Automatic annotation (TrEMBL):
Keywords: DNA-binding, Transcription, Transcription regulation. Residues 79-261 form the IclR-ED domain. SUPFAM superfamilies: GAF domain-like, Winged helix' DNA-binding domain. Pfam families: HTH_IclR (PF09339), IclR_C (PF01614). Residues 18-85 form the HTH iclR-type domain. This is IclR family transcriptional regulator C-terminal domain-containing protein. InterPro entries: GAF-like_dom_sf, HTH_MetabolicPath_Reg, Tscrpt_reg_IclR_C, Tscrpt_reg_IclR_N, WH-like_DNA-bd_sf, WH_DNA-bd_sf.
Length: 261
């Protein structure tokens, strides 16, 4: 039995809680752009485990093929991508939305996405449209800070006042370009405006050449399940013209999908 097992979380019976699974997943999630290769000690520090416990999980993951090692450092293998691929292939929503994204792409000649929130990040789970440079397009499974995307800001704006207040109080606004909203007061005003109008526009907040427009995707009960959005280069089109061209297509498509979700 793992002596460092996490306490049973609220709402889950102790008999149903497998702390080892939680800690194994936390090891995988500890790897990122700044921690591409780690020793067992470093992995332990990032996950709150001892070096010995972290090493046991790393060696188990290595045996399963999710981690590789040179004897000292550990790193993730491409097998980890199977986890995300399993979601994309088994989840109902990405399959349902695909023909509708095709409609948006055909009607706007832009890349259309379905995105959902995971914590403070937007995750793109379906896409359709022309291939463009990575600066204006995201691959499936891409994760982007919610604060700098149209879809992310839209889904943040749709939270309750209490949830949004907690997010603003605990979240640091990272700056990516000279156009990134870095002031919490300005962010609060922008989110209020987005909530009032029911759609979002984000320009050059993450990339100086990128513009995004998003509308909420709701199910038949009116619950928010994600966002439909397009991304496009800034080009020579004004914000007003881009919104006038794209927003009606997004809204009509989101409305057409409600009874299917």
């Amino acid at each position: 039995m793992d002596s460092e097992a996490s306490p049973t979380p609220p709402g889950l019976d102790k008999r149903d809680w497998i702390a080892g699974l939680e800690r194994g997943v936390s090891i995988i999630e500890a790897f990122d752009d700044a921690h591409q290769r780690m020793t067992a000690s470093e992995a332990g520090q990032r996950t709150g485990m001892t070096r010995t416990a972290a090493r046991r999980y790393l060696l188990t993951l290595q045996h399963m093929g999710y981690v590789a090692s040179d004897g000292k450092l550990f790193w993730l293998t491409p097998r980890v991508l199977r986890l995300g691929q399993s979601y994309l292939e088994s989840a109902r929503l990405p399959r349902i939305v695909q023909p509708f994204l095709q409609r948006v792409a055909a009607g706007t000649h832009e890349i259309a996405y379905l995105s959902v929130m995971d914590g403070d990040e937007v995750v793109y789970i379906a896409r359709n449209g022309p291939n463009r440079s990575m600066s204006t397009g995201y691959v499936l499974g891409a994760r982007v800070p919610a604060q700098v995307t149209a879809s992310g800001m839209l889904m943040l704006a749709m939270r309750t006042d209490e949830e949004l207040g907690a997010w603003l109080a605990t979240h640091e606004l990272a700056v990516f370009t000279s156009h990134t909203i870095a002031s919490k007061e300005r962010m609060k005003l922008e989110l209020a405006r987005i909530r009032a109008q029911g759609w979002a526009l984000s320009e050059q907040q993450l990339d100086l050449n990128s513009r995004g427009i998003a509308v909420p995707l709701r199910d038949r009960h009116g619950e928010l399940v994600g966002a439909l959005n397009v991304t496009m280069p800034m080009g020579h089109e004004s914000s007003e013209d881009a919104v006038a061209r794209v927003l009606p297509v997004l809204r009509e498509t989101a409305q057409a999908m409600r009874n299917l979700i």
